[in-house]
Design goal:
Layout lengths: L13 H14 L3 H32 L8
Length: 70
Amino acid sequence: MPTSKTRISVPLSAEIALAIRSEAKKVGVSESAYCAFVIGQHIMSQSQIFKLVEQQLKELEQIKPKEETE
């Protein structure tokens, strides 16, 4: 199923633009395709990290400190 696409414009330093151009050329894709892939991968990995952190925080909240009986 095709998804709709939106163009965005992002100002980059010449150094970053050159790195993108170089990496895109290495893998044989356009600069736009390379940026879309890298951004997508980053967002997906961040989302997974946040879910894991949230899950661990919930687990930690369930651990109650032992009350001292002395």
